[in-house]
Specification:
- By secondary structure, this protein is an alpha+beta fold.
- Helices cover 16% and strands 31% of the residues.
- The strands form three sheets. Strands 1, 2, 5, 6, 7, 8 and 11 form a seven-stranded antiparallel β-sheet that branches.
- A hairpin with a 4-residue loop joins strand 3 and strand 4.
- The longest helix is centred in the middle third of the chain and has 11 residues.
- The chain is globular, with a radius of gyration of 22 Å.
């Protein structure tokens, strides 16, 4: 007797496409083989991200949504490009080790980014002219560049500012973070900016508390990346505020 045909489709599902079990960005944070300090540092592993205070919708007297840019070329933002632990590596390490952290293709959080395509976006493809000895002429050659943390010189934040009438305080809540790099032409000129992905900030708050950010003023007080964002230890400028035409600030 013939077996009945299965109605199941062989097409991959969103869950299989977004499987991160084999995701490996090749990012490793080096650790000293000895105690590289007069005392044992345990605060980094014990830090936790405290939950936010509950805000009732009825208590929000005023609210405004902003998009801002953190430019790592500014002196205050140098911790974001620390060669030992740049912030882009921290983000990718959190995404790699925590499948529950969601990443999206845009700041509206409408469509999730597939883990299978994320690794390909980290490397860049350039077209350059290479001299061919046999043809005695320059020919265009496609060059694949490996992931370079130094190319991510900006980060975008999506955040809400609101006034809580119950506590009479102005509150800021970060909603999303996106790494940004310059898109270059063949001659090396900047064509525009490319956003790699958007990560939902509430998903990574507890993980950011476990990673250390450099403090240029005091080595004994090492801040976590969670404290860096929550206490606003960075310089930035506003690129857009919510408006009917969704226009950026020029």
């Amino acid at each position: 007797a013939q077996e009945p045909e299965s109605n199941e489709s062989n097409a991959p599902t969103n869950e299989s496409n977004n499987d991160r079990s084999g995701l490996d960005f090749g990012i490793e944070f080096k650790e000293a083989l000895v105690q590289d300090a007069p005392y044992e540092k345990v605060a980094e592993k014990q830090r936790i991200a405290l939950p936010y205070d509950h805000i009732r919708e009825a208590d929000v007297l005023w609210s405004k949504r902003l998009w801002r840019v953190i430019d790592t070329n500014e002196k205050m933002n140098l911790p974001f490009i620390n060669p030992n632990q740049p912030f882009i590596n921290v983000l990718l390490k959190i995404i790699e080790e925590n499948p529950d952290v969601r990443i999206f293709t845009d700041d509206g959080f409408f469509e999730e980014e597939y883990a299978s395509s994320l690794k390909g976006k980290l490397s860049s493809v350039d077209t350059t002219d290479v001299y061919d000895l046999e043809l005695d002429d320059y020919v265009q050659t496609v060059v694949y560049n490996d992931f370079n943390p130094g190319t991510f010189t900006k980060f975008r934040l999506k955040e809400d500012w609101l006034f809580d009438e119950e506590t009479s305080t102005m509150v800021c809540r970060i909603i999303g973070i996106a790494p940004v790099r310059d898109a270059l032409n063949s001659d090396g000129s900047v064509r525009g900016q490319e956003v790699l992905f958007w990560v939902y900030y509430p998903d990574i708050r507890e993980h950011l508390a476990k990673y250390e950010a450099s403090n240029p003023h005091n080595d004994a007080i090492r801040m976590s990346w969670h404290k860096m964002f929550e206490d606003r230890y960075f310089s930035s400028y506003i690129m857009k505020e919510s408006n009917p035409r969704d226009r950026r600030i020029e």
